[in-house]
Amino acid sequence: MLDFVLCDDNYNVLTKLEKMLESIFISKKFNAQIVLSTTEPAELVNYIRNNPVNVLVLDIDLKSKVSGLDLANMIRKKDKNVYIIFTTGHLEYGLMAYKYKTFDYLPKPITVERLEETLIRLFEDASGSQSNFVRLDNNKTIIKQDSIQYIQKDGMKVVFHTDTRDYETYSSFKKILPMLPTQFVQCHKSYIVNLQKVTDINTSNNIIFLDNKQDSKCYIGPKYKNQFMEVFNDGNYSNHLDGAYNAK
């Protein structure tokens, strides 16, 4: 059982967050409960001092002398293992939030889909199912492998394009490729694709389409084409295509 504590200065936002969390707990059969939901930082601090907590969901701007970042700093000194999730409408706080070994950062308004994605990662991380994840930024960011469509090199950054959002990190393909299972294949100097996500390939224009969306695509480089197509065909991935695959 994971015990959740919530803190937001806006009562309406707090109530909505409670309902979303409880709905996800039920739909996903997560063994979790909300043990405290408060608009008062002092009440949260008092509760933490006297009770064990697994997950904290904190608004950063609490409209008080104590911010969510202050609470995280205080709590992190006491408990190095508690999961901390920040919420805020102020995007400029994003980088500051990760200073406190933040599990995730949710921009407001929070959607059920975005919250559910975070909870799925959190519960699978808590259960120790690490083989299904890619860990970035010294393990601060955890991505489900089967949610990744493709990975793109963009200057010094590497961007993970997933089913729901993009993740950026400073790394290289040389470091990332060994972490990935065999369905991830480099198809271009700037692209690694998840073969299980491919829905169509235009070999004339060297374009790979993913996730049934024509705007979700990556490219095949001349240097990588023969090897990529060999792996793709030998692995029988072409049997799952929805489009008119043309392997010329």
Short structural summary:
By secondary structure, the protein is an alpha/beta fold.
Write the layout of secondary structure elements.
Layout: E1 2-7, H1 11-27, E2 32-38, H2 41-50, E3 55-59, H3 68-78, E4 83-88, H4 94-97, E5 104-107, H5 112-126, E6 133-136, E7 141-144, E8 148-154, E9 157-162, E10 166-170, H6 173-176, E11 184-188, E12 191-194, E13 198-202, E14 207-210, E15 213-219, H7 225-234
Parallel strand pairs: 1-2, 1-3, 3-4, 4-5
Antiparallel strand pairs: 6-7, 8-9, 8-12, 9-10, 11-12, 13-14, 14-15
Primary descriptors:
248 residues; alpha/beta; Rossmann fold; OB fold (Dihydrolipoamide Acetyltransferase, E2P); 2 domains; 5-stranded parallel beta sheet; 5-stranded antiparallel beta sheet; 7 helices; 15 strands; 29% helix; elongated
First-residue to last-residue Cα separation = 54 Å
Order of helices and strands: EHEHEHEHEHEEEEEHEEEEEH
Which regions have little confidence, pLDDT < 50, spanning 5+ residues? none
CATH homology superfamily of the largest domain: Response regulator
Mean pLDDT: 85
CATH top level label of the largest domain: Alpha Beta
What structural class do the secondary elements suggest?
Answer: alpha/beta
Shape: elongated
At CATH level 2, the architecture of the largest domain is 3-Layer(aba) Sandwich
Main β sheet profile: 5 strands, parallel
* Percentage of residues in DSSP E strands: 25-35%
The strand order across the widest sheet is: 2-1-3-4-5
How many helices in DSSP terms? 7
Q: Share of helix among residues?
A: 25-40%
- What is the alpha-carbon Rg in Å? 21 Å
Q: What's the number of domains?
A: 2
**CATH topology-level fold name of the largest domain:** Rossmann fold
What is the number of beta strands?
A: 15
